[in-house]
Amino acid sequence: MTITQLYYVLAVAENKNFTKAAEKCFVTQPTLSMQIQKLEDELDILIFDRSKKPIELTEVGKKIVTQAKNIVNESYRIQDIVDQQKGFIGGEFKLGIIPTIMPTLLPMFLKTFIKKYPKIKLKIEELTTEEIISRLNEGHLDAAIAATPLEIETIKERVLYFEPFVAYIPEHHRLHSKQKISTSDLDIEDMLLLEDGHCFRDGVINLCKTFKNQVDTNFQLESGSIETLVKLSNEGLGMTLLPYLHTLDLNEKAKQNLHYFNEPSPAREVSILYHKSELKMQIIEAMQSVISGIIRCAITFQNVEIISPLPK
Length: 312
Hints:
alpha/beta, nine-stranded mixed beta sheet, two-stranded antiparallel ribbon
């Protein structure tokens, strides 16, 4: 039994196809098939039911895949140990970031990070929280940045910063004349929301204590981007809530529509996430240090109340 054979098994289990798995592993399909066949012969069992389309794991195959993930992850840890011993911080690092954090945080830290750690080859993807959780568990991401807490047993969280919610209230809205607002002022029925699947949307809904499952209004408007929400709000279609860092790039006229909350300010907790196997910790710690240092200068709010991103 070899690590390579287990790696091939995991590839087939994920892709449910020998040809696609071979492409992902950069080997020929006959080579991959032969190695998996050798493993099955050695164990005297079938890992895959090849009669099914797409290919399915047998019952014992499911158990083997679970154990194979642990073994392959532990094999990667050996290289981590060597890198840490040598003080090496480099190599490929796959990072996922949720859409409501990517456009504001990434420009703030990326240039500093790659200048400080030029040997790290960053691969960054914009992903939903659901996609991030799946990819971290499958080993396809090294880390991610998302709103927390998520309360997932297999994933660890390190808090980077707390980002307050800020209300964007256009002229002629019932709350525009108020200097500061409270959560009790909010009404989900005149709130513009992000589309379902965004954890910031769930945070806003959790914040609005008057939320009703059946909203009795003429329309319910949702969008995929915060910039669109601001434009729709300017058209008089309602108010919206923005993460604080998104307010920094607004023009001076738009900033006149910003209203801050009475303390404690509702806020989201933003963390760096990684699998409990704790691979590439030296890079994760380096990223945490760079981001935390930069954010301390950008967000000075102290008295905040964390709003959960989990759907209720």
